Amino acid sequence: MTSDVTPRYVKANPVEGGKQAVAEAYRNLTAVGATPLATTDNMNFGNPEKPRIMGQFVGAIQGIGEAVKALDMPIVSGNVSLYNETDGTGILPTPTIGAVGIIHHPDQMITGEIREGHLLLLLGETTGHLGQSALLAEVYGRAEGDAPHVDLAAEKAHGDFIRANHAYIKACTDLSDGGLALAAFELAETAGVGVTLDVEDTPTLFGEDQARYLIACNFDQAEALMIAANQAGVTLTTVGKVGGDQITFGSQSAPLEELGLTFRSAFETAVA
Fold it and tell me: Of 86, 108, 130, which residue sits at a domain end?
């Protein structure tokens, strides 16, 4: 089970933001080998008597509807919370999507185990979309550009590819907030082993293009996945490798232990 939404996307583009909330929930389930089954929506918005807020609400519903139909994840329940404001300022539009899936047999589970020598493969196309990205919001304090476009056909095709080829995949995570850079770091930090990405340009590292997964596997499994990707007509590229005790993006490196400490203590630091 999972729950997801990116409110800054919904504010910038309610339709695409609504679609993305469903798509990310779909990817989270897929990344562990599960078949997504159904969703529940938790519609949190400001004052709907304001036309802008009502527009967000209607647009998000439209996007959610398109996505659950395309990804075969019907809405089975939900709730609505409106008039969420403080001193006349509404919360960011937050149509949270909860979703459940099923792993029919333990052999279908993608357990997330990575080790020294694994290759890192990226499923999906990267254009480097930085509009409304976590990089802009968290590092630069900016909210600019459109939300990333959600290609529901690509989401479905890539999810089906992951499930059909789960036997070749040791670890898998979808790309969302923070893009490729954060996805690679989270795999590394969880396993306690370094990673190297072959790229270092900002759009490739931190762009938040949708319908993408980062996969870790051994060399033979990578070859099998490449053949399968060619047959399925999906884009799969090698982007790095696992090993050492550093996080390396191109020519830039930092100790995993140091970055992990920052990662694990950031919330406590922020609220202390």
Answer: 108
130 and 75 fall within a common domain: no
| Residue at 242 is within a domain | yes
On whether residue 114 sits in a domain, the answer given is no
Closest CA to 33 of 180, 160, 176: 160
The domain of 82 spans 2-108
Q: Do 195 and 255 lie in a common domain?
A: yes
**Domain's final residue, options 89, 108, 127:** 108
Residue 272 has pLDDT above 90, yes or no: no
Q: pTM for the full model?
A: 0.95
Per-residue pLDDT tens digits for 184-237: 999 999 999 999 999 999 999 999 999 999 999 999 999 999 999 999 999 999
Kindly compute the dihedral angle of the four CA atoms of residues 64, 66, 72, 76, in this order, to the nearest 10 degrees.
Answer: 40
Give the span between the Cα atoms of 53 and 58, in whole angstroms: 9
> 34 φ, ψ to 5°?
-85, 150
- Nearest Cα neighbor of 215 from 182, 238, 197, 231 is 238
Share the mean pLDDT of the chain: 96
Same domain, 103 and 193: no
Query: Which residues face 241 on adjacent strands?
Result: 119, 196
Residue-level pLDDT at 49: 96
Domain tally, the chain? 2
pLDDT digit string, tens, across residues 5-21: 999 999 999 999 999 99
The partner residues of 3 in beta bridges, in order of sequence, read: 98
The total of other beta-carbon atoms located within 10 Å of residue 88's CB is 8
> What gap in Å lies between CA 65 and CA 71, rounded to an integer?
10
Position 251 scores a pLDDT of 92
Q: What is the DSSP letter of 130?
A: -
